[in-house]
Amino acid sequence: MSEDKVKKPRFSSIVIEGVKYKTYLTQKYKNRKKYSDPEPNKVFAFIPGTIAKLATKSGKQVKEGDVVMILEAMKMMNKVTAPMDGEINFHVSEKQIVAKNELLFEII
């Protein structure tokens, strides 16, 4: 391969604390979802589906391991359990279609 056909890396620059650096960081990397601390009291949908049944109501006390809802996904009924003891607060209702990573409920 001749020298004029060799691809040269494209640099972009980033400024950290007033100092400009050359970097290979891509736009995709810059637009990525930022890290956030996990919140163990919040439960998110692990797969898209439909809420088939809520086993209890918001404001009720639940114990760790109690089945609190049934999530129907890919023709399977998935039991969603409480991760800890506390008062449950639902963010969904029966027959609602949920997307992956949508907040289902939280334990207060």
Explain what the structure shows.
This protein has one helix at residues 27-30; strands at 12-16, 19-23, 42-44, 49-54, 61-62, 67-73, 76-81, 86-90, 97-98, 103-107. The chain is mostly beta strands. The chain has a four-stranded antiparallel β-sheet, with no helix packed on it. The chain has a four-stranded antiparallel β-sheet with strand order 7-6-4-9, with no helix packed on it. The model has no long low-confidence stretch (mean pLDDT 90). It contains one helix and ten strands, in the order ββαββββββββ. It is 4% helix and 43% strand.
Secondary-structure topology with pairs:
Layout: E1 12-16, E2 19-23, H1 27-30, E3 42-44, E4 49-54, E5 61-62, E6 67-73, E7 76-81, E8 86-90, E9 97-98, E10 103-107
Uncertain residue ranges: none
**Rg result:** 23 Å
Helix fraction, binned, reads: under 10%
> Could you give the order of strands across the largest sheet?
3-10-8-5
**SSE string, helix = H, strand = E?**
EEHEEEEEEEE
Total count of helical runs of at least 4 residues: 1
Query: How far from one another are the termini?
Result: 64 Å
Arithmetic mean of pLDDT: 90
| Main pleated-sheet profile | 4 strands, antiparallel
Strand content: 35-45%
The structure class reads mainly beta
Taken from the alpha-carbon principal axes, the silhouette is: elongated
- Could you give the count of β-strands? 10
What are its keywords?
single chain; 108 residues; mainly beta; 10 strands; 4% helix; 43% strand
Brief overview:
The protein is mainly beta and 108 residues long.
